[in-house]
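Morning F.,

Quick status update on the modeling queue. The single chain you submitted on Monday has been processed. Sequence for confirmation:
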Amino acid sequence: MNGFEAELRERILGMTAHATVTGKYGQLDNWRELDQKLKDYPHGRRGSFISGQVMINADRRVSGTYAQRDYAGL
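Structure tokens below.
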């Protein structure tokens, strides 16, 4: 793997979660407790986000999609 490939791989993998933890029915009630447990995990990063289905309306066309947003942005 050359330098360009390594940089590209790091950027792509850095933006995509390798694992997502969620609770039953997509809701995690004890997220603060879990956040504290994962805080000192040596090789991981954590972040909170909301996600769900949304409907987009533009130019008299309607389309459904899936959206998510980081809590830090709210």
